[in-house]
Amino acid sequence: MRVLIVEDEMLLAAQVDKFLRDEGFVVDVASDGEEGLYYGREYDYDAAVIDLGLPKLDGLGLIAKLRSERNRVPILILTARGDWRDKVTGLEAGADDYLTKPFHMEELLARIRVLIRRAAGHASAIIERGPLRLDTARKEVRLDDSRVELTAFEYRVLEYLMVNAARVVSKSELTDHLYEQDFERDSNVIEVFVRRLRRKLDPDDQIRPIRTVRGQGYRLALGTDGD
Ligand code: CA
Asked: Cystine design at 165: which of 7, 55, 200, 220 (Cβ 3.0–4.6 Å)?
Protein backbone atom coordinates (compact mmCIF):
# COMPACT_ATOMS: atom_id res chain seq x y z
CA MET A 1 0.00 0.00 0.00
CA ARG A 2 1.28 3.45 -0.90
CA VAL A 3 0.66 6.44 1.36
CA LEU A 4 1.35 10.15 0.82
CA ILE A 5 2.26 12.29 3.84
CA VAL A 6 2.02 16.08 3.46
CA GLU A 7 3.46 17.65 6.59
CA ASP A 8 5.82 20.62 7.06
CA GLU A 9 6.98 19.70 10.57
CA MET A 10 10.05 17.77 9.51
CA LEU A 11 10.45 15.78 12.72
CA LEU A 12 6.83 14.65 12.76
CA ALA A 13 6.96 13.82 9.04
CA ALA A 14 10.09 11.72 9.59
CA GLN A 15 8.49 9.87 12.51
CA VAL A 16 5.33 9.07 10.55
CA ASP A 17 7.42 8.07 7.54
CA LYS A 18 9.52 5.62 9.57
CA PHE A 19 6.58 4.19 11.47
CA LEU A 20 4.55 3.50 8.33
CA ARG A 21 7.54 2.02 6.49
CA ASP A 22 8.15 -0.30 9.42
CA GLU A 23 4.52 -1.36 9.03
CA GLY A 24 5.15 -2.27 5.42
CA PHE A 25 3.77 0.78 3.62
CA VAL A 26 5.44 2.57 0.76
CA VAL A 27 5.62 6.23 1.83
CA ASP A 28 6.20 9.52 0.02
CA VAL A 29 6.65 12.69 2.08
CA ALA A 30 5.90 16.19 0.80
CA SER A 31 6.76 19.19 2.97
CA ASP A 32 4.43 21.78 1.46
CA GLY A 33 1.09 21.90 -0.33
CA GLU A 34 2.50 22.38 -3.82
CA GLU A 35 4.78 19.39 -3.48
CA GLY A 36 1.82 17.44 -2.09
CA LEU A 37 -0.20 18.36 -5.15
CA TYR A 38 2.63 17.26 -7.42
CA TYR A 39 2.83 13.85 -5.73
CA GLY A 40 -0.94 13.51 -5.63
CA ARG A 41 -1.13 14.09 -9.37
CA GLU A 42 1.88 11.97 -10.20
CA TYR A 43 1.13 8.81 -8.23
CA ASP A 44 -1.85 6.70 -7.37
CA TYR A 45 -2.08 6.45 -3.56
CA ASP A 46 -4.05 4.15 -1.30
CA ALA A 47 -4.34 6.94 1.30
CA ALA A 48 -3.05 10.46 2.00
CA VAL A 49 -2.33 12.12 5.36
CA ILE A 50 -2.50 15.90 4.99
CA ASP A 51 -1.65 18.54 7.60
CA LEU A 52 -3.93 21.58 7.31
CA GLY A 53 -1.32 24.25 8.09
CA LEU A 54 1.11 24.01 5.17
CA PRO A 55 3.35 26.50 3.33
CA LYS A 56 2.74 27.53 -0.31
CA LEU A 57 -0.66 25.85 -0.59
CA ASP A 58 -2.51 25.03 2.63
CA GLY A 59 -4.10 21.67 3.36
CA LEU A 60 -7.63 22.80 2.57
CA GLY A 61 -6.52 24.25 -0.77
CA LEU A 62 -4.64 21.05 -1.56
CA ILE A 63 -7.64 18.83 -0.78
CA ALA A 64 -10.02 21.06 -2.75
CA LYS A 65 -7.64 20.98 -5.71
CA LEU A 66 -7.24 17.20 -5.64
CA ARG A 67 -10.99 16.64 -5.35
CA SER A 68 -11.73 19.12 -8.15
CA GLU A 69 -9.44 16.98 -10.32
CA ARG A 70 -11.51 13.92 -9.41
CA ASN A 71 -8.76 12.45 -7.28
CA ARG A 72 -10.57 10.07 -4.92
CA VAL A 73 -7.69 9.06 -2.66
CA PRO A 74 -8.89 8.54 0.94
CA ILE A 75 -7.66 11.58 2.91
CA LEU A 76 -6.95 11.89 6.63
CA ILE A 77 -6.33 15.45 7.83
CA LEU A 78 -4.15 16.44 10.77
CA THR A 79 -5.57 19.32 12.79
CA ALA A 80 -4.54 21.36 15.82
CA ARG A 81 -6.08 20.41 19.13
CA GLY A 82 -9.51 21.85 19.84
CA ASP A 83 -9.95 23.61 16.53
CA TRP A 84 -13.29 22.10 15.55
CA ARG A 85 -13.78 24.56 12.69
CA ASP A 86 -10.71 23.10 10.99
CA LYS A 87 -12.17 19.62 11.17
CA VAL A 88 -15.50 20.73 9.74
CA THR A 89 -14.00 22.74 6.89
CA GLY A 90 -11.53 19.93 6.20
CA LEU A 91 -14.26 17.34 5.93
CA GLU A 92 -16.35 19.70 3.81
CA ALA A 93 -13.40 20.22 1.48
CA GLY A 94 -13.37 16.49 0.83
CA ALA A 95 -11.30 14.84 3.58
CA ASP A 96 -12.57 11.48 4.88
CA ASP A 97 -11.37 11.60 8.47
CA TYR A 98 -9.28 13.70 10.84
CA LEU A 99 -6.81 13.21 13.62
CA THR A 100 -5.94 15.82 16.25
CA LYS A 101 -2.30 16.58 17.04
CA PRO A 102 -0.55 15.25 19.03
CA PHE A 103 -1.54 11.69 18.23
CA HIS A 104 -0.22 8.19 18.78
CA MET A 105 1.29 6.49 15.77
CA GLU A 106 -0.85 3.41 16.43
CA GLU A 107 -3.99 5.51 16.11
CA LEU A 108 -2.78 7.05 12.86
CA LEU A 109 -2.06 3.56 11.55
CA ALA A 110 -5.49 2.27 12.59
CA ARG A 111 -7.24 5.22 10.90
CA ILE A 112 -5.26 4.78 7.70
CA ARG A 113 -6.12 1.08 7.60
CA VAL A 114 -9.81 1.86 8.10
CA LEU A 115 -9.76 4.41 5.27
CA ILE A 116 -8.07 1.98 2.89
CA ARG A 117 -10.47 -0.83 3.75
CA ARG A 118 -13.51 1.41 3.53
CA ALA A 119 -12.39 2.71 0.14
CA ALA A 120 -12.23 -0.90 -1.04
CA GLY A 121 -15.63 -1.70 0.47
CA HIS A 122 -14.43 -3.71 3.46
CA ALA A 123 -15.78 -2.78 6.89
CA SER A 124 -13.66 -4.98 9.15
CA ALA A 125 -9.98 -5.76 9.66
CA ILE A 126 -10.64 -9.31 8.47
CA ILE A 127 -10.93 -9.87 4.76
CA GLU A 128 -12.27 -13.24 3.70
CA ARG A 129 -12.36 -14.73 0.24
CA GLY A 130 -13.43 -18.32 -0.01
CA PRO A 131 -11.15 -20.42 2.24
CA LEU A 132 -8.66 -17.55 2.57
CA ARG A 133 -8.76 -15.26 5.58
CA LEU A 134 -6.55 -12.21 5.99
CA ASP A 135 -6.24 -10.41 9.30
CA THR A 136 -4.91 -7.00 8.21
CA ALA A 137 -4.27 -5.82 11.77
CA ARG A 138 -2.13 -8.83 12.70
CA LYS A 139 -0.87 -9.49 9.18
CA GLU A 140 -1.92 -13.10 9.49
CA VAL A 141 -3.07 -15.33 6.69
CA ARG A 142 -5.12 -18.47 7.14
CA LEU A 143 -6.22 -20.96 4.58
CA ASP A 144 -8.96 -23.32 5.74
CA ASP A 145 -8.02 -22.35 9.30
CA SER A 146 -4.37 -23.29 9.05
CA ARG A 147 -1.82 -20.55 9.19
CA VAL A 148 0.14 -19.73 6.03
CA GLU A 149 3.60 -18.31 6.63
CA LEU A 150 4.36 -15.51 4.20
CA THR A 151 7.29 -13.13 3.93
CA ALA A 152 6.50 -9.44 4.43
CA PHE A 153 6.50 -8.79 0.71
CA GLU A 154 4.43 -11.84 -0.18
CA TYR A 155 1.92 -10.63 2.40
CA ARG A 156 1.79 -7.18 0.80
CA VAL A 157 1.14 -8.65 -2.64
CA LEU A 158 -1.64 -10.88 -1.30
CA GLU A 159 -3.21 -8.09 0.76
CA TYR A 160 -3.30 -5.82 -2.27
CA LEU A 161 -4.90 -8.53 -4.41
CA MET A 162 -7.45 -9.33 -1.69
CA VAL A 163 -8.42 -5.70 -1.02
CA ASN A 164 -8.88 -5.25 -4.77
CA ALA A 165 -10.37 -8.68 -5.40
CA ALA A 166 -13.29 -7.34 -7.42
CA ARG A 167 -11.06 -6.47 -10.36
CA VAL A 168 -7.96 -7.33 -12.33
CA VAL A 169 -4.75 -5.82 -10.93
CA SER A 170 -1.97 -5.22 -13.44
CA LYS A 171 1.68 -5.91 -12.74
CA SER A 172 2.55 -2.24 -13.09
CA GLU A 173 -0.16 -1.32 -10.57
CA LEU A 174 1.34 -3.82 -8.13
CA THR A 175 4.83 -2.38 -8.56
CA ASP A 176 3.48 1.18 -8.13
CA HIS A 177 1.74 0.35 -4.89
CA LEU A 178 4.27 -2.00 -3.36
CA TYR A 179 7.66 -0.57 -4.26
CA GLU A 180 9.58 2.57 -3.42
CA GLN A 181 9.84 4.87 -6.42
CA ASP A 182 13.62 4.56 -6.61
CA PHE A 183 13.39 0.79 -6.59
CA GLU A 184 14.14 -0.75 -9.93
CA ARG A 185 10.78 -1.75 -11.28
CA ASP A 186 10.83 -5.11 -12.85
CA SER A 187 7.60 -6.96 -13.45
CA ASN A 188 9.52 -10.25 -13.49
CA VAL A 189 10.02 -9.77 -9.77
CA ILE A 190 6.27 -9.52 -9.28
CA GLU A 191 5.87 -12.73 -11.27
CA VAL A 192 8.29 -14.47 -8.93
CA PHE A 193 6.35 -13.33 -5.87
CA VAL A 194 3.03 -14.36 -7.34
CA ARG A 195 4.48 -17.77 -8.18
CA ARG A 196 5.71 -18.16 -4.60
CA LEU A 197 2.33 -17.08 -3.24
CA ARG A 198 0.58 -19.62 -5.43
CA ARG A 199 2.89 -22.37 -4.22
CA LYS A 200 2.24 -21.49 -0.58
CA LEU A 201 -1.51 -21.02 -0.91
CA ASP A 202 -2.16 -23.87 -3.26
CA PRO A 203 0.66 -26.46 -3.14
CA ASP A 204 -1.42 -29.10 -4.94
CA ASP A 205 -2.53 -26.72 -7.67
CA GLN A 206 -6.21 -27.29 -6.89
CA ILE A 207 -7.94 -24.03 -6.00
CA ARG A 208 -5.82 -21.73 -8.18
CA PRO A 209 -6.40 -18.67 -5.97
CA ILE A 210 -4.55 -16.17 -8.14
CA ARG A 211 -5.49 -16.25 -11.79
CA THR A 212 -3.51 -14.67 -14.57
CA VAL A 213 -5.63 -12.61 -16.90
CA ARG A 214 -3.68 -12.67 -20.12
CA GLY A 215 -2.20 -9.31 -21.05
CA GLN A 216 -3.91 -7.59 -18.11
CA GLY A 217 -2.59 -8.87 -14.82
CA TYR A 218 -3.86 -10.89 -11.88
CA ARG A 219 -7.19 -11.50 -10.27
CA LEU A 220 -7.97 -13.17 -7.00
CA ALA A 221 -10.33 -15.97 -7.87
CA LEU A 222 -11.75 -16.98 -4.52
CA GLY A 223 -15.26 -16.46 -3.31
CA THR A 224 -16.16 -14.47 -6.39
CA ASP A 225 -18.86 -15.43 -8.83
CA GLY A 226 -18.14 -17.48 -11.87
CA ASP A 227 -15.10 -19.35 -10.56
CA1 CA B 1 1.89 22.48 9.77
From this structure: 220
